[in-house]
Design brief:
about 120 residues; mainly alpha; 434 Repressor (Amino-terminal Domain); two-stranded antiparallel sheet; 7 helices; about 5% strand; elongated
Length: about 120
């Protein structure tokens, strides 16, 4: 299957997808918007800078208590860190999908087409 459709670190289980990478990216984006260094944000959350960085790089999965501490350190509600879906508008989403499809072989495109057909026209 086209690796771009399911990047490394994405685990598909039934209808559920784990969003570890997306969570880390969201934490980093919010931290940078708050103009906080990784070290300052980690200190505010009473975490090590190494651990915070591992969360941002999707190498560690934080507990609920840690997510709440990170959110407080960033000055946002915890649910803001967990808002993982529908972050892109339709135009950006189409661009990302087009870019992924551009890297696929003919066989991978056929698989992607069958998947889309199953999702769009059940």
């Amino acid at each position: 299957m086209c690796q771009a459709l399911f990047p490394l670190g994405t685990v598909v289980r039934g209808n559920h997808v784990e969003y570890r990478k997306q969570f880390g990216k969201r934490v980093r984006t919010i931290r940078k918007k708050a103009k906080l260094t990784l070290e300052v944000a980690a200190e505010r959350a009473n975490l090590s800078g190494n651990y915070w960085g591992e969360v941002e790089r999707s190498q560690k999965v934080p507990s609920l208590d840690t997510i709440i501490a990170m959110a407080k350190a960033l000055g946002v509600p915890a649910h803001a860190l967990l808002k993982l879906d529908r972050e892109d508008d339709a135009k950006n989403l189409r661009k990302r999908i087009d870019a992924m499809l551009d890297r696929c072989s003919r066989e991978q495109l056929e698989v992607a087409s069958r998947i889309l057909h199953a999702v769009v026209e059940p």
